[in-house]
Design a protein that fits this description.
Radius of gyration: 22 Å
Shape: rod-shaped
Largest sheet: none
Order of helices and strands: HHH
Number of strands: 0
Amino acid sequence: MNSADQLEQLLTLSEEMLRLALSSDWDRVVEVQGQRSALIEKSFPLDEAVALTDAQAHLKKILSLEAQVTALAVSAKKELGDTLGKINQGKQATKAYTDTSRG
């Protein structure tokens, strides 16, 4: 696979990561990210035959997709933290009620 094909595949994997993140399939996001990371290791440095403008365009798209996935991950992490906080508050309330009703 030449560098141009690798860049195209990196873009495809990045788009797949965004699609999966939008559907909150974080396990698959991590799996695809692993595939993409392995391909990144193989892809650089780029072949001299790859036009610099094409490479820049692909890399800008990939970085934009990465930023979107990261923003979704941060949001999901916050939402999970909020949910866990509410669960913890519920446990504390239940314990306080139980302790009070026994005493």
